Amino acid sequence: MMNRKTVAAIVLVAFAVLGVSLAATLESNWNDFLHYVKIGRFDLAKGYAQAILDGNPDPVKLKDLARQDHYGYQILRRVVEDATDQELVDVSKKVINLVEEGLFIARSNDVIVAEAVRELSVSERGKYIATRRLYNAGEYAIPFMLEAMADPSRKNEFVNIVATLPKVGRDAIRPLAASLQTDNLSVKAEVIRALGEIGYTHSLGHLKYLVEKAQSQELRSLAAESIRKIDPAAAKLPAAVLFYKTAEQYYYHTESLKPAEDADFGNVWFWDTENKKLAREPVDRDYFYELMAMRNCEWALKADEGFGQAIGLWVAAFFKAEAAGVEQMPAYFGNAHATALVYATTAGPEYLHQALARAVRDKNADVALGVVEALAVTAGEKSLLQRLGVAQPLVDALSFDDKAVRYSAAIALGLGGPTVQFPESKLVAVNLAEALGQKAADVTEPTRRWTGPLADSYALRAAETMLALAVSRNKVVNLSLAQPALIAATNDSRDPIKKLSGQVLAYLNSPDAQRAIAAMALLAGNDMAVRVAAFESLGTSAKINGNMLVEQMVDDIYALIGDGSAPAELRAAAAAAYGSLNLPSRKVKDLILDQARS
């Protein structure tokens, strides 16, 4: 038998082996996972991926393993995009998310980045390693590098930092561009040079802004030189145009402008004038591009306050940002920041038509709907039918493939009271008629842009719009095209729709229209308020169009007037309508004699 010392020794060895085994488990599981992914044995790969997750790994260590086999990691990402095995996709995505978390932790760690900046000036070996770290840190490196450059006590580091600044690459452009607002001229000069060395076009607006606005001739010359390095043709364009071009690139999610993929947010950079340093606002990736489009439009207007195109794009980008589905706008907006609709209604029709033309061209229903609703509030006939080149954006919206946009366009044009004929005018009546028939009960699969309440709202708005057109005797929008829908609506389950439909029908010179009103008034199953309103509409119809009722309907109205058991208010409404019909004297005589006492 073994003595106690022997047993103790075995236990210590066992624990030592176990410790080595546990330390090696993450690496071995990772290697096996990638191996089986590479050879297509996804059944085995899933098991090792789950083993990685079950081990609750350190994301930074997992990131290091991914970097050691970069090729294998890229294969893994492609497999996840193309695989049909949902279980493999789900578990692999969780592993990839951990790797990206590790990347983010490593590159955004203040201590690591600050130390890397200092190591640039320690030794050549240290400089090489530090440069790689700062490249990996990307935009997060820039505040520390600029702070060191501006610190008089660290001026011995200045040369090495300046040499490294452009090597951070494309991710450095957004914070560098924001830092051009610094009042430290030596730092600003080096930022200008670095932007020229990095060479991406989305810094051109900021550089040309300096050419146009900077007081220092040296800075203007440096900015002009950097522009020539990036794109010599851009030197001929105003800063406002260059900002606008960048804004459009953001609006359309140009690949070169994407935020880093290792986080679920992007950074919007600002210059903190009070503290003389960069500040970042993390924003949801789902509207990062749109917010940056808005920022560049704002800069375009700073460069040239008369550059109206930037207003139209800004409005479109704001509606697009709101449509991203993020519950809150970014913190830097502040509590007093208005919604996109408020800014749109303030902007006026000229800029709204620019935004709408873009939305129609892009088939973007969210932007189109927001802009059309703003036009419905602010625009009159002349501005509603405004042309942009050969296009009429609001008229084009009448044929949009999203019904909410079509209905809103028809409502906007109807409320605008058009007096000039246009070829698509019939679409106004057609869309209003279609909107009138929308019901909450019919919405079985609601979406963000179409819900039960919205269906009811559009029906009511369409009816109100048609009534406004009818009352004004509008000659452009032919409401007779909507007559079948209006007649059907007199049997609607919603009383307001019934009443409004009857009021619109009263203005149509049609026997069917007048008879539908009378039928609604005579139907005992209708609420008394509906019947009274229908009799009022019948009176209006009779005054405008004369009597077009069949004899039986006249007799039924006559009988109701003489029915002592009917509510007095209903009998009075029926009598008023009856009088408006201007019937032959025989009917009036009968009415008088029927009530006479012998």
Q: Could you walk me through the main structural features you see in this protein, from its secondary elements to its overall organization?
A:
Strands 1-2 form a two-stranded antiparallel ribbon. Among the domains are: 21-107; 506-598, no CATH class. Helix 22 crosses helix 23. By secondary structure, it is mainly α. It is built from 31 helices and two strands.
What secondary-structure arrangement, pairings included, does this model have?
Elements: H1 4-38, H2 42-54, H3 59-68, H4 70-82, H5 86-108, H6 110-119, H7 124-137, H8 142-150, H9 158-164, H10 173-179, H11 185-198, H12 204-213, H13 217-230, H14 239-251, E1 265-272, E2 277-284, H15 288-303, H16 309-322, H17 340-347, H18 349-362, H19 365-378, H20 381-384, H21 393-397, H22 403-416, H23 425-436, H24 452-471, H25 483-489, H26 495-505, H27 511-522, H28 528-545, H29 551-561, H30 568-580, H31 585-595
Antiparallel strand pairs: 1-2
How far apart lie the N and C ends? 136 Å
Structural class: mainly alpha
Widest sheet: strand ordering: 1-2
Helical content (DSSP H or I, runs of 4+) = 55-70%
* Shape type: elongated
Mean pLDDT: 89
Summarize the structure.
The protein is mainly α. It has 31 helices and two strands.
Features:
598 residues; mainly alpha; two-stranded antiparallel ribbon; single chain; 66% helix
